Amino acid sequence: MNMTSIALLAWVRGPGFHIALAIFCLGLVWRLIEIYSLGRDPHLAAPRHRAGASGWWTILRRSRPSAEHESMVSYLSGYTFHIGLILTFFFFAPHIELLRRATGFAWPALPTPLVDAAAAITVVALGVMLTSRLLDPVKRFLSVTEDYLTWALTLAPVVTGYLCFHHLGFSYTTLLALHLASVEVLMVCMPFTKLIHFVTLFPSRWMNGDHFGRTGVAS
Amino acid sequence: MSASLERGLDRFREALDADTASFFATCVRCGMCAEACLFYTETKEPKYTPIHKLQPLKRLWWREYTLLGRIAAAVGLSKPVTDAELSAWSELVYDSCTLCGRCSLICPVGNDITYMIRRMRDGMAAAGHAPPGLVGATRRAIELGSPMGVTLATLQAQIRHQEEATGIPIPMDVQGAEYLVLLSSMEIVNNAEVIGAVARIFHQAGITWTLASDAFEATNSGIQIGVSELAKEIVLRTVTAAERLGVRAVVSPECGHAYMALRWEGPDLIGRPYRFEVLHILELLDRLRAAGKLKLASTFDLPITFHDPCQIVRRGGVIDAPRNLLNLVATDVREMHDHGVYNWCCGGGGGVSASGRAEELRLTAFNKKRGQIEATGAKVVATACANCRMVMEEAIDHYQMGVELKGLTELIADHLEQETPEVAA
Fold first, then answer.
1. Pairing mode, if any, of strands B277-280 and B179-181?
2. SS3 B250
3. CATH class for the domain made up of B304-413
4. Which pLDDT belongs to residue B137?
5. CB of B20 less than 8 A from some CB of A
6. At the top level of CATH, which class does the domain B141-290 belong to?
7. Which residues on A lie below 8 Å from B274 (Cβ)?
């Protein structure tokens, strides 16, 4: 069993990671070409003002919850898990060390107990997101298999990382291998599922803001 | 596959651009657009969630324009879009969407859902799934020049009445006038006083204007139903008349879609920029106000609120002008809770009011507006769209609200200083 987990760890650290990285990068490029090569119709109407930075402003503004919303659960848990993911992924010392070895770039880490708490809170927030998807009539109506799949794909690295750090359940080697494997599966799926919004969110908001901006409306 | 379905799906393919694909790819199905849509908030039926209304278009995109979707289609894991499905979606795309644009302003990932619905309607109409009421209006717009079947003779009769009522000549086909004024069918049929109102205001302000006998109708049902060729033809009528008469600007009337169609979609439809400016009537009136050319003799003192027509305010960008004008003429202006770009639709825009089968749903959706109006305590609602006005008048009667509707242009005209005051007896 120990040998199996060592072999698995070696694979996910070596070939597995390279395959996942290749699919992630090529998949992303493929998808972006697929989407943005469809082209845009020209806007020939004289804008009210020069649209200027309205697209860029919308990228920022849409992060701000709109107060009239009844979607506070979505906003709160959505914000929480996104911030939690960023903190745990980018500011956990071992992750930074890994990225430094891969890219040469490094930055200060957050104290480990803080990252630990962020991971736990992220798991709770994702739990709230799932509950809301199952209970809210609109979300339940809209949901397809992909929504539950991407939810699990997002949760898995956080849970396995948390268990790994606390040495809970399985051996450290097994947990680390599962943690890396879960990240790799996530990387493979990101370009081909709604998780691609981590990139396409920005052009989408920009297009929306630019369109509204031409007419003189700050979106 | 029937020929009409094939035509419709071809239109869907033409509708798919980088914007649409980006929006579809980015949607995380958070459902927040539901809360932005009055058809959902007033019925609580999840099928009215704005992004769901695009489902057939999205599936066509996924099946034919994405790697995974094409694989799924090839191995039979994804079903093609069928005629029965489009038929079922007709209610969602037409009856329960006024193209009001509120969802586009709320979507946290920035999806312009309204933009996509507008494009999807092109395919729905081509596939024969536009509502009969809207098809009729569009046919009349082609055959008679007006969706309500208003002819030049009808307009001329109304002009004569207004000339008699105001004592001011109403110019027709005047070469070299500064402004070409368009009217909507609703105004000509239901509310011709607005013609007199415009005449009085322009007379006082000393600007030259004209109507055009071959382009008096502004309503663009081509936009509403989603037939771009027709939308283009209607825009071209106005462009041709404006260029023939050599006007400086074309003035779009108190009609939401007319303004949006002419001001924002028109140049794209005809494939070139205009050689004249397009102004909404309220923009022109606001310019006259700023130049001190609107002289009022009295004010309107009852509590009054303003209903923002979606296509003029949220989709059109005319936000301050109505408020400047209302504050000029009225002393007790009460804004609704969500006003300006966040205003709620009357429920009848985007061709919904022309669709008989949508009537019950439209009246239900009006409850949003009803709540907004009642919360202000205003007894008069001013607006700047003849369609909003008609829709709200009907609903206000239906709910026996005891509220009166006023066009803002008329309201200004009612309080104008008389140029030649009558000598007191």
1. unpaired
2. strand
3. alpha beta
4. 83
5. yes
6. mainly alpha
7. 46
How many Å apart are CA B395 and CA B402, to the nearest integer?
A: 11
Minimal Cβ distance to A215: which of B44, B65, B315: B315
Helices (H) and strands (E) in chain B, counts: 23, 7
Position of tokens 């992909």?
A: A146
As a whole number, mean pLDDT of residues B184-198 equals 90
Write the residue in A70, A139, A215 that is nearest to B264 by C-beta: A215
Chosen CATH of B3-130 out of 1.10.287, 2.60.40, 1.10.1060, 1.20.120:
1.10.1060
B291 pLDDT higher than 50: yes
Contacts of A136 in chain B (CB under 8 A): 31
Domain parsing of chain B, residue ranges: 3-130, 141-290, 304-413
On whether any CB of chain A is under 8 Å from the CB of B74, the answer is no
- The nearest CA of chain A is from the CA of B423 a distance in Å of 45
The token pair that represents B347 in the structure block: 């429920």
Q: Write down the pLDDT at residue B219.
A: 86
Beta strand B404-407 with B380-383 is parallel
How many Å lie between the alpha carbon of B418 and the closest alpha carbon of chain A? 34
Q: What is the pLDDT of residue B229?
A: 86
pLDDT above 60: residue B182: yes
Q: How far is CA B3 from the centre of its chain?
A: 31
A118–chain B nearest CA distance, Å = 23
Cβ proximity of B62 and A34 under 8 Å: no
